[in-house]
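User: Please predict the structure of the protein below. I'd like the answer in structure-token form so I can feed it into my own downstream comparison script.

Assistant: Understood. Taking the following sequence of 291 residues as input:
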Amino acid sequence: MLSITEKHNPDTIDIDLKSGAEIAKLINNEDKKVALAVEKEIEIIGKAIDEIAARLKKGGRVAYFGAGTSGRIGILDASEMPPTYGVKPSMFKAYIAGGNKAVRKAVENSEDSAEFAMHDLAAFKPKKNDVVVAISASGNPQYVVEVLKIAREKKLLTIAVSSNPNAKMKEFADIFINPIVGAEAVTGSSRMKAGTAQKMVLNMLSTGAMIKIGKTYKNYMIDLQVNNAKLYERAIRFIKEITGSDEKQAEYALKKCGNVKTSCVMIMKNCSVKEAEKLLIKHGGILRKII
């Protein structure tokens, strides 16, 4: 059966006869459908967030697996977790069919390789409480299907993200997230709407899990890595806004500990770095419970 993502789109039939602005409008009209498709999956996405967060709290990790565009989107999401939330790179890993070479250049037949799947899952070294997220527009490539199949045999939580309700990987997914975006503006070019939907879903999964394990206070990312001038200024601003302190207080605290979260505890509780760290450990790193 032909995947929805491979079907012909009657709304863009004459796109090759249009001006640049008309082409952009047609694509934009299709893109408007993506957020609505993702919205229909909110309850399922929410369940996935809760399940991921519960496992991360127990020392689990998340691994994304995908081929082509889907693999690259997984790499993008995973690579942003350490600088944004201060987690170890090992917490979120990403694998693409064909390995590092496939990040920049297509590797022939990689998405159809069960061998690549077994190799990459073995490289992840899955353990109890780990989560495997497979990403694919059609949900049919052997690479993602095999990854989920093996992961399920190992009793890991398996999540599949697809835009095809008849995806083969659905059979091996504990949680199946399926925003149906319809046919692409350019037939079969699933890097477009399907790819956008995947990025939106992964943003929700990773961000939601980070929020649930205490990596934010309100909507401030309080565990960001402060490693350049822009991020230093952002950190100072966050500390001031959260605590109501002035520039001098915020800078003093940040220079003492190098972390927004700890700085906020120091200022609000008028305590030392060590005392602030002990309070954070006591409350599971959740700033809301302290201030």
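That's the full token string. The radius of gyration is 22 Å.
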